[in-house]
Each structure stands twice: as C-alpha cells, then as structure tokens.
Specification:
It is a single chain. With about 200 residues, this protein is mainly α. About 65% of the residues lie in helices and about 0% in strands. The longest helix is centred in the first third of the chain and has 26 residues. The chain starts with a helix and ends in a 16-residue tail after the last helix.
C-alpha cells in the first residue's frame, strides 16, 4: 500500500513535469541543455579537490553527477558514481551530502531545473530503502541539516516493521547502506535485487 502511494505521488509529479516541459517547448530543451553544461563544469572544477579528499568538493561532484540509474555512453549523469562521491563526503560530516543520500534512498533522485530527467525518473520504478533514508536524514538532523528532522519523522511514519528493525540495527552499529550497490541489492528496497552498474572513471 505504501509503495503504491509513493508511486502515485511520483507519477503525478512526472505528469506535471512533462506538461510543464511541453508547455515550455524549446525553452525547456534549452534549460535542460544549460543544466547539463553547468553540471559538467561543476564536475571539472571540483574533481581534483574531490580526489584529494575535500568533502565539499566531493559533495559538489556527487550532486552534479546525480542522477540516472542506467549510465548511457557519454552521459554526465550516474547515480552510482554520484553516490560514491556523496558517501565519501557524508562520511566526513558533510550535511548536504547526507541529505542528498537520504533523498536518493527515498526514491527522489533528481531535483532542480532538470525537467526532462525529473519526469523520466518519477515515472520509472525507482528503488527505495526508507530505512537507509531515515538513517541519513537522522544523521543530517544531528548535524543541523535544514528540514532533516521533519523528513526523518515522515520516513519513520512510512516505514514497515522490517525497515524499523533495520534502523535499530544501524543504531546498534551495523553498517548502513550508502552506495548504489547497497540500494539495488537491499532486500527491503523497492527495486529488489539487481547488479550495480560499472562505475565510470
């Protein structure tokens, strides 16, 4: 029932976004193209610092690469690659990376002006892991993340008994899901088990 409500909410969002894109016409295509160019520039300007271990740069790269489950040749976007950088930043205490990870695990991967990709992602059967989403929202709340407390409360209400048990295990010291492989192979993720894609370099 919960998954059905979530998919209905995402489908409504997708229809709204597709209608917005259709009404905007060529302007929507231009905005999308501009967003891609901007994201590529963000990756290029932050990648050296990210590789050197700077958490803010790691977040910037991860946010720019997010998100697309299937990596098309030549595409700048990859959820798997994005989560690798976001995990690195979050594990160094970057609050924005924690919030972004929580959103991805909740199934809400794409934001901002990326109208076409937001619509396509909303229609797709996006995997979810509310236990992991709750964990990262709670981490962000403890770090002072804006709105994290409300989102942690919402995910807590939406979780199943099994997901709440998983949260208790994380609190007891079990390693929480963080990367794409964890999401795709989790037995409580909406997408079920599936292999993770190869990470690009």
């Amino acid at each position: 029932m919960r998954n059905s409500r979530n998919r209905t909410r995402l489908l409504r969002r997708a229809l709204f976004l597709l209608c917005s894109a259709q009404l905007a016409g060529c302007a929507a295509v231009a905005v999308e193209g501009g967003s891609v160019a901007l994201d590529k520039a963000r990756v290029q300007s932050n990648i050296d610092a990210a590789l050197a271990g700077d958490p803010q740069a790691q977040y910037a790269v991860g946010a720019a690469l997010c998100c697309s489950g299937d990596v098309a040749e030549g595409s700048v976007y990859s959820t798997a690659e994005a989560m690798r950088w976001l995990c690195a930043a979050a594990n160094q205490g970057d609050t924005k990376a924690m919030l972004k990870l929580a959103q991805i695990f909740e199934g809400d991967q794409v934001d901002g002006l990326r109208i076409v990709r937001r619509a396509m992602t909303a229609v797709a059967d996006t995997p979810q892991n509310l236990a992991a989403a709750h964990y990262w929202y709670s981490r962000a709340e403890a770090s002072g993340g804006d709105g994290a407390a409300d989102m942690a409360g919402e995910t807590n209400q939406a979780m199943t008994t099994a997901e709440k048990e998983a949260v208790a295990q994380y609190a007891a010291g079990a390693e929480p899901p963080c990367e794409w492989a964890d999401l795709k192979s989790s037995p409580i993720a909406g997408g079920g088990e599936a292999p993770a894609p190869e990470l690009g370099q």
